[in-house]
Amino acid sequence: MTMQDLHSNVAPVQALPAQTINQATGALVSADVDLAGFNAAQVVVHFGDIVELGASPVGSAQIAVTLEHAGDDGTGAPGPYSAVAAADVIGVAAVSGGIVATVTSDLVPMSVGYVGDRRFIRITLTPTGLTSGGPAGVIVNKGHPRHAPVQAS
Question: Which of the ends of the chain has fewer CB neighbours closer than 10 A, N or C?
Fold first, then answer.
C-alpha cells in the first residue's frame, strides 16, 4: 500500500512555546493563529512532567484548555475573540464557555479539531492547584489548504 502525502497538506504553527505553567505564571495565552488559506486546524496541547498531575494527582490540580476564535477585523488582524461552541470543534466530549478540555494527567498530549468558520484562533491554558507545575505548550496544525503543497514557513 502506498502512503498518502500528509506533509504537503499540513502547516504546523508553534502557537505557544513550551514553558512552565503554575499558579505563579497564571494563565498562558497562545499567539493568534491565522487560518487564512486553510479550511481546518488541529490544536495539540503537549505537557511535560507536571508535579501535581500524573499518576498521583494532588488535590484538584488541573489545567483548563480554552479555545476562542475571531473573524478578520477588516485590516487582516483578529477582531474580538469569543468562546467556541460545540459545533466549532470535534474530538472532545463537551464544550462549556469555550473550555474544550480539563486536563488532569500530564505527559499525554490532548488534541481538538477546529472546524469553525472564523479566520483566527487562540488557546488559553489556565492552571488550578499547580504550585510547582511544569512545562506545557501548544502546536496548531493548519490543514486542508486551499492551495497545496503547503510552503514551509
Answer: N
